[in-house]
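Researcher: Let's continue the batch. This sequence belongs to RNA polymerase sigma-70 factor, and it's 187 residues. Same format as the previous ones, please.
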Amino acid sequence: MQTVSDLDLVNMIKAGNHLAFSELYQRYKIVLYLHIKKMLNNEDETKDIIQETFTYIWVNRLDLNISTSVKSYLYTTVRNKVLNVITHQKFENNYLNSLQNIIEIGEFSTDEKIRENELIALIERGIENLPAKMREVFELSRKYHLSHKEISEKLNISDKTVKKQISNAIKILRLEVRNFILLFSFI
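Model: Same format as before. Here are the structure tokens for RNA polymerase sigma-70 factor:
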């Protein structure tokens, strides 16, 4: 199989050929590993991204549409997954820092916990009240950490539509959160 082109391998994978899938994995696992490791410097995350990428390819093989080279497709996919991991890590770090500040200052009170729960419930209701397609795009992005490209492929919509839907969802949710904060700033 070493003489078979990457695109031929993809076509064979679409037909359910496990050997072709294995060959594609063998061709790219090391270079992708090194590429991801250089960006994240975390072995577990790196292995997870490689596994997620190839699992996605196999699970979605029938819908796989690679318009560029396979190598470019793989690099773009892992780059998007790395960016999702970095974004998630920043969010986690900010949350943990905020929590640490609250603990250090000693301001964590029952009243604040109630407000926090109300804010979480408000956001969840806001997400539930989004138009169905917008909610689906938003949840795929924020809850399942799919890239815009992965969402567009999964839902058969353009990247531009994905970006617009996420942007609109954030605007709607931000307005609800802002109103909530304004309400409690007067209390």
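Researcher: Any comment?
Model: DSSP finds eight helices and no strands in the chain.
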